[in-house]
User: Fold these one by one.
Assistant:
Number 1:
Amino acid sequence: MRKIALSYLQDAKSCLEEAKQASIRGDYARTVSRSQECVEYAVKALFEALEFSYPFIHDVGPQLLLLTEDERLPEDLRRDLPKIASLTTSLASKRVIARYGNQRAGIPAKELFSKSDAEKAIHDATFTYTEVKKLLNKG
């Protein structure tokens, strides 16, 4: 396995832990931001482990769908790829606003996200991280 894949997986784990801590503090925007980073690192770890070329952008959900027929992946993960791709795209769409807020309207990020937003982000990040980790631990 490529060292960078393992490094990205460790980064994903760190981001997930930081997201959980931010949620405990009531910092829901930071929770969403760190959850997005967790998902991005986890998916890129998968790409690196498979030596799959991907663009250097934050939303790699569409590229993930290209792996649904990749027989190197277990059937259950291939079945979950559309869900993971959707989670990746959804969280990536919140990335900028979770960090910087709505600058035009003058609304800080912390006022734009609720506890339920944070809980969903953590749930989605945990699911993605867990699925990728299972595969990488087999390799």
Number 2:
Amino acid sequence: MPVTLKDSIEIYSRMLIKRYGSSAVRKAQKHAGELKHRGDVDGFEVWTNISETISGYLNPQADLENHSNNKSDSKI
């Protein structure tokens, strides 16, 4: 079974958390910024998604609240 981009984002997110703990978000954001600076828009988007996924793992309640707020905004 092939590994999807979503699967890869989950795998990298978990790996970064195991390696860097609470610093994992900053590491992913830093890498995303480096990619953006080099003009790698696709890489920037992927690493931004990794950063957001890590944030969700480390602070699941905030992730649920943000998701809930986004849903209510779309109904307006």
